[in-house]
Design goal:
The complex is a heterodimer of chains A (302) and B (348).
Chain A (H helix, E strand, L loop, with lengths): L1 H15 L3 H6 L9 E7 L5 E6 L4 E8 L2 E8 L7 E5 L4 E9 L17 E14 L6 E13 L22 E7 L2 E7 L10 E11 L8 E11 L4 E5 L2 E4 L5 E2 L2 E5 L5 E5 L2 E2 L7 E2 L6 E6 L3 E5 L3
Antiparallel strand pairs in A: 1-2, 1-8, 2-3, 3-4, 4-12, 5-6, 6-7, 7-8, 9-10, 9-20, 10-11, 11-12, 13-14, 14-16, 15-18, 16-17, 18-19, 20-21
Chain B lengths: L7 H12 L8 E4 L4 E4 L2 E11 L2 E7 L4 E12 L3 E12 L8 E5 L4 E16 L5 E2 L3 E15 L6 E2 L6 E6 L2 E4 L12 H4 L10 E11 L2 E10 L6 E11 L2 E11 L4 E3 L8 E4 L5 E2 L2 E4 L4 E4 L2 E4 L2 E4 L6 E6 L29
Antiparallel strand pairs in B: 1-2, 2-13, 3-4, 3-12, 4-5, 5-6, 6-17, 7-8, 8-10, 9-13, 10-11, 10-12, 14-15, 14-25, 15-16, 16-17, 18-19, 19-21, 20-23, 21-22, 23-24
The chains are: A mainly beta (302), B mainly beta (348).
C-alpha cells in the first residue's frame, strides 16, 4: 500500500516538472521543439540573453568578460509564442513573440547539415531584471528575438555551443570542490592557447526551493579567466600555488604535510558581481591534482 | 583508510585468515608434466573455546601435524577505527587426528590430550572447482579430555575443552594444475607469522623497522596509503621460538593523526617519527643521517612489554610522490614476501 502511494507521489512529482503548467492549462500537446531567444543589453556593459527551451525552462544569462550567470526558472505558460515567469525578487518576464521577416536556415560551424530553422521577430510585453546588488539591470517593453527549431542540441544558432578543443590539452590541472562550488585551474604548454598558458574556472550554484504556486529558481555563476604562467606554479612535485588575477584574490596552496596528507589552504577567494567574496580554500573541500602524462591523486577529507 | 578503512568486514576476513592461516587443506604435488596435480588427503579440526579478556580463543588443527592455540581480540581505535591483536602458539600434534586424537605440549604454557566426540551431525561438501576424487566431510561435536593453556602473563587461561568443535576430512584429490590447495608449510613459524592485513603497495610513506635477536624477530611497519586522511596503518609482528614451539604475537591498527610523520620525498637525510596509539606507547625517531632508530616506543601485548627501538633495528623508510612513483613504496617487492622474511631466521 505504502509502495503504491510512493509510486503515485513519484508520478505526480514527475508530472509537475517541467510540464506542470501544461497540466494546469489542460493542454496535452506533445512537447514542441522550439526555443525562444531574446537579446538584451544590461547596464554596466553586461549582455543579457533570455531563452526558453522546448521544455519551458527559462534561462536568463548575464555575460561579460568571462563571467556568466544563469538564472533558471520555469515558464508558466504552455504556448510557444508566449512566456511568463518570475525570477524571485530579481525580475519579471511576461512577453509575446511576434514574427517579423522570413524564416532563415543559418549555417553554423561544425554543423553542416544540421541547419536550424530560425524565425526572426520581436517580443513585446514586460522584461525586467535587476541583478544582485544592482550589478546590472534591464527593463524593456520590446526586444529583438527569434524562435528557433534546432536539428541538434549542439547546433543552436541562438546560443552557439562554443568550445576550444585545445583546452582539453592541459599538461597539469588542479580542482577543488565543495557544496555548490567547483574550482578548476589548468596549465597548458606555452603557446598552445592564445589567451595564455593558464586558465582558471570557477562555478558556483544555488537553488531556491519553490514556495507553493511558484517556480523554483536556480542560479549558476561561473567565471573563466586566462592567466600568465606564474599564476599556476606546480614546479615542485609536492607543492602547488595558484594566484589567479582579479576578480579572484589571495592565494591557494596545495602542500604535503609530514603526515603525507595533502592540504589545500590559503586565502584564495572569488568575488562574483553582486556577491560577497566566496572562499575557495575551506578545509572541507575535496580536491585533486593531475599530471597529464602520469595520472591524478585526490585527497579525502574527514 | 585511516578511520574506518579496516572495516568490520576486513576484520572478519582477518579472523578467517587467522583460522585458515598457512593455506589449504592438503599438500599438493605435481604430476606428469604438470598438467595434473594431487592434493593430498588430510584432516583438520577446530574447537571454539570462548572469550576471555576480550580474546576469542580457538584450538585449531590446520592439518594432521600441527596444533595451534589462537587468541584474537578486535578492538576499536578512536571513534571509527579498528585494531586487532593476536597471539598464536604452534606445536606438533603427537596424536592421530584421523582418529580424532590431538596430543600436544606447549612447553610451560600448557598441553592438550583430547579425543573428538562426534554428535552425529555431518556436512558434506564437493571439492573445489577443478578437482575431483571425493567429498570433504565435516563432523560436528566436541572434544573430551585434558586441555590447559595459560597465555603469557595470564592474559587468557583455559582449562576445559568444552566448546563447539568440528573435524573435517578431505580426501585425496586430483586437480587441474593450479586448482589444488597450496601446500601447507612444514615450518611451525609460518603458522604464527600472519600475512599482512594492510597492503603496502599504495603507500606513499612507509617505515619498516625490524630486528632479529636471540631467536626473536620483531618487525613494525607504519604506512600511510595514498589519498587517505591523516594517520597511518600500523602492523607489529613478534615471532619467538621455544623448544618445539613457535609463538607469534602481533597487532594491526589504524593509527590517528601523528602516527607517522616523515620528511618530504627526495629529502636527504630523511627523518621520521612513529607514535602509534595503544597498545603501543612512546615515540620512535628515525634519522637517515645517523642511521638511528631511537626513542621510547614500545608495545604492551598479551603478557609482554617490549621496547621497539634500539641500535639492533634495521630501518627502511620510503616516502614517495603519488604521481612520480605510481607504484608506491616498493622496497618490499624486492624482498621475499612479508610473511617469509622472518622465516630466514631459521626459527622453527
Amino acid at each position: 500500500m505504502r509502495g503504491t502511494a510512493v509510486a503515485v507521489l513519484a508520478l505526480a512529482a514527475l508530472s509537475c516538472f517541467p510540464g506542470g503548467a501544461w497540466a494546469k492549462a489542460g493542454d496535452d500537446r506533445p512537447p514542441v521543439r522550439q526555443w525562444i531567444d531574446v537579446e538584451l543589453q544590461g547596464s554596466n556593459g553586461y549582455t543579457i540573453h533570455l531563452s526558453v527551451n522546448p521544455r519551458r525552462h527559462l534561462v536568463l544569462q548575464v555575460e561579460k568578460e568571462g563571467f556568466l550567470a544563469e538564472y533558471m526558472t520555469r515558464d508558466l505558460l504552455p504556448e510557444t509564442d508566449r512566456v511568463k515567469a518570475k525570477l524571485r525578487g530579481l525580475g519579471v518576464i511576461s512577453l509575446r513573440f511576434h514574427p517579423r521577416g522570413s524564416v532563415r536556415h543559418p549555417s553554423l560551424p561544425r554543423c553542416e547539415k544540421w541547419r536550424p530553422t530560425v524565425q526572426p521577430g520581436v517580443v513585446r510585453g514586460t522584461i525586467k531584471f535587476v541583478g544582485e546588488r544592482n550589478y546590472t539591470r534591464v527593463k524593456a517593453r520590446e526586444a529583438e528575438a527569434a524562435v528557433e527549431e534546432p536539428k541538434k542540441w549542439t547546433c543552436r544558432y541562438g546560443s552557439p555551443f562554443e568550445f576550444n578543443p585545445r583546452e582539453r590539452e592541459w599538461t597539469s590541472k588542479f580542482s577543488a570542490r565543495g557544496e555548490g562550488f567547483f574550482f578548476l585551474a589548468r596549465r597548458y604548454r606555452p603557446g598552445l592557447l592564445k589567451s595564455g598558458p593558464v586558465i582558471f574556472f570557477v562555478e558556483q550554484g544555488e537553488a531556491f526551493e519553490a514556495a507553493s504556486g511558484q517556480a523554483p529558481l536556480t542560479i549558476y555563476r561561473q567565471l573563466k579567466l586566462p592567466a600568465p604562467a606564474a599564476a599556476f606554479d606546480d614546479s615542485h612535485p609536492e607543492h602547488l600555488t595558484v594566484s589567479p588575477p582579479a576578480p579572484f584574490s589571495g592565494t591557494g596552496a596545495l602542500a604535503r604535510t609530514p603526515e603525507s596528507v595533502f592540504t589545500w589552504k590559503g586565502d584564495l577567494s572569488i568575488q562574483f558581481p553582486g556577491l560577497d567574496p566566496i572562499p575557495l580554500t575551506e578545509p572541507s573541500y575535496g580536491f585533486d591534482y593531475c599530471l597529464r602524462e602520469v595520472g591524478c591523486f585526490e585527497q579525502q577529507v574527514d | 583508510m585511516g578511520r574506518g578503512r579496516l572495516s568490520l568486514l576486513a576484520v572478519g576476513l582477518v579472523v578467517a585468515t587467522v583460522l585458515l592461516a598457512a593455506a589449504g587443506r592438503g599438500e599438493a604435488e605435481l604430476r606428469r608434466g604438470g598438467k595434473l596435480e594431487v592434493q593430498r588427503a588430510d584432516t583438520a579440526g577446530l574447537v571454539r573455546l570462548g572469550k576471555q579478556g576480550g580474546y576469542r580463543i580457538f584450538l585449531y588443527m590446520p592439518n594432521r601435524r600441527v596444533v595451534l592455540f589462537y587468541g584474537v581480540r578486535i578492538q576499536r581505535v578512536g571513534d571509527d577505527g579498528f585494531g586487532l591483536t593476536y597471539g598464536i602458539y604452534a606445536t606438533r600434534n603427537r596424536g592421530n587426528l584421523d582418529h580424532g586424537v590431538v596430543r600436544a605440549r606447549f612447553g610451560s604454557l600448557g598441553r592438550v590430550s583430547l579425543r573428538f566426540r562426534p554428535d552425529g551431525r555431518i556436512r558434506k561438501d564437493d571439492p573445489q572447482e577443478g578437482c575431483g576424487g571425493g567429498v570433504e566431510t565435516a563432523e560436528y561435536g566436541s572434544f573430551a579430555g585434558h586441555l590447559s593453556f595459560r597465555g603469557e602473563g595470564n592474559y587468557f587461561h583455559v582449562s576445559s575443552p568444552s566448546g563447539k568443535a568440528y573435524l573435517t576430512r578431505s580426501p585425496r584429490l586430483r586437480c587441474e594444475k593450479g586448482q589444488a590447495a597450496e601446500p601447507q608449510p612444514r615450518s611451525l613459524r609460518k603458522y604464527v607469522a600472519l600475512t599482512p592485513l594492510f597492503h603496502d603497495d599504495d603507500s606513499i610513506a612507509l617505515l619498516y623497522a625490524s630486528t632479529r635477536k636471540h631467536g626473536r624477530y620483531v618487525g613494525i611497519t607504519a604506512m600511510h596509503p595514498e589519498e587517505s586522511p591523516p594517520g597511518a596503518d600500523v602492523e607489529l609482528k613478534i615471532l619467538d621460538s621455544r623448544k618445539g614451539m613457535a609463538i607469534g604475537h602481533g597487532t594491526y591498527l589504524e593509527g590517528f593523526a601523528g602516527t607517522l610523520l616523515t620528511s618530504p620525498p627526495g629529502v636527504h637525510p630523511a627523518t621520521a617519527t612513529v607514535a602509534p596509539p595503544a597498545p603501543f606507547y612512546g615515540k620512535a625517531t628515525y634519522s637517515e643521517e645517523a642511521g638511528d632508530w631511537t626513542g621510547t616506543l614500545g608495545v604492551k601485548l598479551a603478557g609482554l612489554r617490549l621496547p621497539l627501538t634500539g641500535s639492533d633495528y634495521r630501518v627502511h623508510l620510503c616516502v614517495v610522490n603519488p604521481l612520480r612513483d605510481k607504484d608506491g613504496c616498493e622496497f618490499f617487492k624486492t624482498e621475499p614476501p612479508y610473511f617469509e622474511r622472518p622465516a630466514r631466521l631459521g626459527l622453527g
